[in-house]
Specification:
It contains two helices and seven strands, in the order βαββββββα. The protein is mainly beta and 171 residues long. Strands 1-2-3-4-5-6-7 form a seven-stranded parallel beta sheet, with no helix packed on it. Strand 1, helix 1 and strand 2 form a beta-alpha-beta unit.
Length: 171
């Protein structure tokens, strides 16, 4: 039987061992680990093949492995906002059902790959508020269904001059 699990607001820095049991977590469709003190992205999440919604909002995560999302093909909602991520070099291209992505309020120090959203044709909402780095290289041609693009707190002048300019109405 599928189930949703919320362990938000528990000040967890380490997750309970039972969560790493594949037989249990393969049935999880929604996982909310927001508002904790996690430093490391839980590697076992890659084995949660039926996960539709994942929120790791407001933790202390600094790094995410490049291939961590390869098996999460059903993921439609991914919130990594308010962490301490330094890079956004992980792959999302296999997340063909992704509709909502939030990377706001991180400490990104490098530009994202231009094809970061390759394959994310269903993406409707992307959030980069106070992202921490310029978004010059992102190619949004892979996201023809984008309806909500949040860029608050960024240097909007530079964004308009980049490839993103055609997605933003001036005046």
């Amino acid at each position: 039987t599928p189930f949703a699990l919320s362990l938000s607001n528990n000040e967890l820095s380490v997750l309970p061992e039972w969560m790493a049991i594949p037989k249990v977590m393969k049935r999880c469709t929604a996982l909310d680990l927001s508002y904790n003190k996690l430093i490391k992205y839980p590697d076992w999440i890659k084995d949660c093949n039926n996960l539709l919604k994942l929120s790791l909002r407001n933790n202390n995560i600094t790094h995410i492995d490049k291939n961590i999302f390869l098996e999460n093909k059903h993921l439609s909602y991914l919130d990594l906002s308010f962490n301490k991520l330094k890079k956004a070099d992980f792959y999302l291209f296999n997340l063909r059902k992704l509709q909502h992505f939030d990377l706001s309020y991180n400490e990104i120090e490098e530009s994202m790959p231009s094809d970061f959203f390759r394959g994310n044709y269903r993406l409707k909402s992307a959030h980069f508020e106070y992202y921490g780095y310029e978004l010059f290289n992102i190619n949004f041609q892979y996201t023809p269904n984008i309806q909500n693009l949040s860029l608050g707190g960024l240097d909007i002048g530079n964004i308009l001059e980049s490839g993103l300019g055609k997605y933003i109405k001036k005046g």
